[in-house]
């Protein structure tokens, strides 16, 4: 069964901008190429996406000066990645969202008549990203804005870079895009030094065999 990965919107934006600038080998480009290939160091790889993410991505790109036709073609291409993967699936439809809230997906409680109150950013889309990853049974969620997805109940594998979110019968790895790129390239799961030693030992060929 292929590993399922959900990419936050910012990873796609970083990849598009890197390509437009003529750069090569960035973490976001490595991740997107692995999704395009449908395979990486971890084995078969399947993309999990949602209609909401594709729509939001198209809006963000046009705000950054990308013409509407190019933005639409880019999001259509992403949808095709999911359909052409090793376990083909259509974009998910998220109803409501926010079942797994993130830092910017929770509205602040305040006195609306208090002129001194400053609203923090409110972005329910991050919550929908998590909802899509969980509903799509993704193994990992990759993002360049890791702080938005941190939660006090997470298992910290590498604080601020790799966490594990556990829900009813499922565990979702949330990884910074640089850590995910290394994971996909090497096939070695990010972890504490003891865990990595076990992974490396398992990955080495058995020299004792004839």
Shape: globular
Strand order of the largest sheet: 2-3-1-4-7-6-5
Helix content range: 40-55%
Indicate the mean pLDDT. Answer: 78
Q: Specify the number of helices.
A: 7
Total strands: the figure is 7
- Which band does the percent of strand residues land in? 15-25%
Q: Biggest sheet: strands, sense, closure? A: 7 strands, mixed
> What is the alpha-carbon Rg in Å?
18 Å
Compact description:
This protein is of the alpha/beta class.
Question: How does this model look, in words?
Answer:
There is one protein chain. The chain has 210 residues and is α/β, with parallel strands linked by helices. Helix 1 (9-20) crosses helix 3 (51-63), helix 2 (27-37) crosses helix 6 and helix 3 (51-63) runs antiparallel to helix 4 (68-83). It is globular and about 40 Å long. The two termini are 31 Å apart. Strand 5 (155-158) and strand 6 form a beta hairpin. The chain has a seven-stranded mixed sheet with strand order 2-3-1-4-7-6-5, sandwiched between helices. The protein is built from seven helices and seven strands; from the N terminus they run E-H-H-E-E-H-H-H-E-E-E-E-H-H.
């Amino acid at each position: 069964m292929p590993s399922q990965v959900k990419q936050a919107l910012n990873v796609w934006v970083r990849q598009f901008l890197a390509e437009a600038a003529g750069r090569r080998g960035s973490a976001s480009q490595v991740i997107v190429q692995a999704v395009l290939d449908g395979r990486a160091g971890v084995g078969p790889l399947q993309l999990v996406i949602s209609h909401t993410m594709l729509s939001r991505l198209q809006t963000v790109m046009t705000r950054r000066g990308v013409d509407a036709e190019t933005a639409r073609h880019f999001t259509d291409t992403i949808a095709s990645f999911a359909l052409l993967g090793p376990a083909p699936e259509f974009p998910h439809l998220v109803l409501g969202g926010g079942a797994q809230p993130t830092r910017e997906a929770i509205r602040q409680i305040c006195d609306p008549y208090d002129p001194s109150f400053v609203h923090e950013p409110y972005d329910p889309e991050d919550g929908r990203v998590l909802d899509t990853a969980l509903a799509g049974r993704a193994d990992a969620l990759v993002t360049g804005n890791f702080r938005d997805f941190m939660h006090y109940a997470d298992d910290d594998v590498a604080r601020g870079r790799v966490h594990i979110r556990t829900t009813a019968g499922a565990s979702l790895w949330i990884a910074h895009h640089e850590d995910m790129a290394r994971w996909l390239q090497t096939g070695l799961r990010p972890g504490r030094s003891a865990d990595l030693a076990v992974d490396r030992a398992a990955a080495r060929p058995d020299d004792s065999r004839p």
